[in-house]
Automatic annotation (TrEMBL):
Source species taxonomy: Bacteria, Bacillati, Actinomycetota, Actinomycetes, Micrococcales
Record field: transmembrane: 21-42, 48-68, 75-93, 99-119, 126-146, 166-186, 215-234, 271-290, 296-315
Protein name, as recorded: ABC transporter permease
Protein's cellular compartments: Cell membrane
Keyword hit for Transmembrane helix: yes
GO terms assigned for molecular function: transmembrane transporter activity
GO cellular component: plasma membrane
InterPro entries from the UniProt entry: ABC_transp_permease
Topology of the protein relative to the lipid bilayer: Multi-pass membrane protein
Length: 322
């Protein structure tokens, strides 16, 4: 080994690497452990199942990443996903609209609900926690009212989202597409860079001339739109819009973002990290299913993982403030 290589090895900051890539390291260790524990984990069919299962959670979490990076929280995304799919199904099955219009109607529903969340938070001065907690109940209630508590048939265009395009499941294709779009928005656009500034210090961002309120509305609108995509994906997989669909998914979305390295204090977060965080959650559930662990214990394990991730976030912030 040359002197240069030795110097680089000595200068490598393992603590910094683990701090920035802890979720990825944890995912690799988790996959190795499950590979040893069960021979069915790394089969092609199971990996496809993981890809399909992670699609809904990851797309939902991409929208949540925008909100958390900007220093907010959105507890309504699971209900918004269900409402968007239900409205799309109602447009097709009851209103008689063409399938593509029903699909667009579902997307617009998510965008509108997200915008309402943003307006309530930015201009109504409600904390995002309270505004979206209220919307969680409102959106779920509207879902039950529109569907009368029963599943609604989806249009062929929505059902296509749950099918295959050649050998590749459509949910995986949609997942890749939304990941690229979300990453571009967050890293390559003015609004994306503004999210980091607002999340880091909203008052400093305002004094520097950034339209903080408009940015906040945009962030929540994007979260609502991504929630609608996730809801339509789930409806496509189920071949129907279920009124209780995506219940509790908002917690999975928040957990995926935090596990992926984002800070609940705002100003920190990456789409790639969120994707890895979503994979960690889905791989844990998939592995525990393969090991025949009951769903009750799965909830305990997921809760512990979330607690550890938040603990690391708190520790990271304390370390960086020194």
């Amino acid at each position: 080994m040359t002197d240069t290589m030795q110097a680089r090895a000595r200068s490598f900051d393992y603590k910094k690497f683990l701090s920035n890539n802890g979720a990825l390291v944890g995912l690799v260790v988790l996959c190795l452990a499950l590979f040893i524990a069960t021979p069915n984990f790394l089969t092609g069919q199971n990996l496809l199942n993981i890809g399909i299962q992670v699609s809904t959670v990851a797309v939902l979490a991409f929208g949540m990443t925008f909100v958390i990076v900007a220093g907010g929280i959105d507890l309504s995304v699971g209900s918004v996903a269900a409402l968007s799919a239900t409205v799309s199904g109602w447009f097709f099955a009851s209103a008689g609209l063409p399938g593509w219009m029903a699909l667009v109607g579902g997307l617009v529903t998510g965008l509108v609900i997200g915008t309402v969340n943003g307006l309530a938070s930015a201009y109504g001065k409600l904390p995002s926690f309270i505004a979206t907690l209220a919307m969680l109940s409102v959106a779920r209630g509207l879902t039950l009212v529109i569907s009368d508590g029963r599943p609604i048939s989806t249009s062929p265009e929505v059902s296509f989202l749950g099918g295959d395009l050649g050998p590749i499941p459509m949910p995986i294709i949609v997942l890749i597409g939304t990941a690229l779009i979300a990453s571009f928005v967050l890293n390559r656009t003015v609004i994306g860079r503004s999210m980091y500034a607002v999340g880091g210090n909203a008052e400093a961002a305002r004094l520097s001339g950034l339209p903080v309120k408009r940015i906040t509305v945009t962030v929540f609108a994007l979260a609502g739109l991504f929630a609608a995509v996730a809801g339509l994906l789930l409806a496509g997989r189920l071949d129907s819009a279920q009124p209780q669909a995506a219940a509790g998914y908002e917690l999975d979305a928040i957990a995926a973002v935090v596990i992926g390295g984002a800070s609940l204090a705002g100003g920190v977060g990456r789409i790639s990290g969120t994707f890895i965080g979503a994979l960690v959650l889905v791989v844990i559930r998939n592995g525990l299913n393969l090991l025949n662990v009951t769903s009750f214990w799965q909830q305990v394990v997921i809760g512990l993982v979330i607690a550890v991730a938040v603990g690391f976030d708190v520790l990271r912030r304390k370390t960086s403030s020194r």
